[in-house]
Amino acid sequence: MSRNYNIAIVPGDGIGKEIVPAGYSVLEAIAKIQKFSIRSETFDWGAGYFLKNGMFLPKDGLDILKKFDAVYFGSVGLPEVDDTLPAKDYTFKVRTNFEQYVNYRPVRTYPGVTRPLRSEKPIDFVIIRENVEGEFVQMGGQYLPDSDAGMGIDTSVFTRKGIERVAHYAFKLAQKRRKKLTHITKSNTLINSLTYWDRIIKEVSLHYPDVTHDQMYIDNCTANFVLRPEVFDVVLTTNLFGDILSDLGGAIMGSLGLGGSGNINPEKDFPSMFEPIHGSAPDIAGKNIANPYGQIWSAALMLEHLGETVAAEKIMTAIDKSTQQGVLTRDLGGNAGTLEVAAAVIKNL
Ligand code: NAI
Ligand code: MG
């Protein structure tokens, strides 16, 4: 298999412009060590691009991205741009058109990082978020919004095909891990869409008798993320619930800036896209204080997806060494800058 990888880099806005180059420098370093080659092209798409060009990415943007092996992404959004646009015009566009129906969002303990939970028990689970349908299909409308009779409707869409494929992915992942899958629901109140979600997941579970499967309501799940996160292995959730749970996952690790993720097209018909779990954090942008660990972790997830497993493991070990040595950004109570973190990880490689 060829070990030359062609990576599209989309830093996006805000801190993306700082943490993506920091993460990419780690990629370049590990490529040298593991003797594979990466070529990349950087695209200045996002809300900043929208201010100049009236769109988040050019009309042929998806065709351009399609030619790459993977997309290394920061995040999009700026305070001066309508915040209904970044997801609709960039993130969801890529996720849906490239059938990245799995959002892989791991949560774990970082050595040397003080976390907000009292318990010291190690945390190690993966949120698998359905990534292209559910509550985020943006089907709906507003009726006479400026009148007294105004109303707004968003419809959720849950299809058999959509549930089956993400559920199969999650159960297969559980088989490779601690063989436990918890699926998140709220079928006691969303009695049409989420009873269907439960039913299909239960059907799929029959193919994986070696995996212990249970279901948990989203409200109870948020409490358990805080009270006993060590019980989770694979957490299968809908699009909206997964969006919320992954920020909570970041928080229990110690900071939003610690979370890496992959938008995965398991069939590899299209490139997958790797990004931190958080947004463009305009409140701290341009100061070299953003935490790049989640962005660097996303690089490791990308390499794993491309088949460079050893390289991915080496990055994770170097991350752990760096946090253990106290190379921590401000959000973690330290004073290391974004670039210093990247330099420490590279040194530890
Ligand atoms: P956010 O995740 O950007 O920031 C939330 C809080 O966490 C802020 O206080 C921020 O400073 C902090 N934070 C986030 N990442 C950090 C890091 N790496 N290091 C240190 N601190 C960090 O979420 P927010 O403020 O709700 O949204 C800001 C913009 O990002 C909005 O325009 C939103 O639409 C966009 N966004 C984009 C996403 C994407 O492109 N995938 C995902 C989420 C939000
Ligand atoms: Mg989110």
From TrEMBL:
Keywords, alphabetical: Manganese, Metal-binding, NAD, Oxidoreductase
Keyword Transcription attributed: no
Listed InterPro entries: ICDH/IPMDH (IPR050501), IsoCit/isopropylmalate_DH_CS (IPR019818), IsoPropMal-DH-like_dom (IPR024084)
Domain Isopropylmalate dehydrogenase-like as annotated: residue spans: 6-345
Cofactor(s) it depends on: Mn(2+); Mg(2+)
Pfam family, any one: Iso_dh
Protein name per the record: Isocitrate/isopropylmalate dehydrogenase family protein
Source organism of the structure: Namhaeicola litoreus
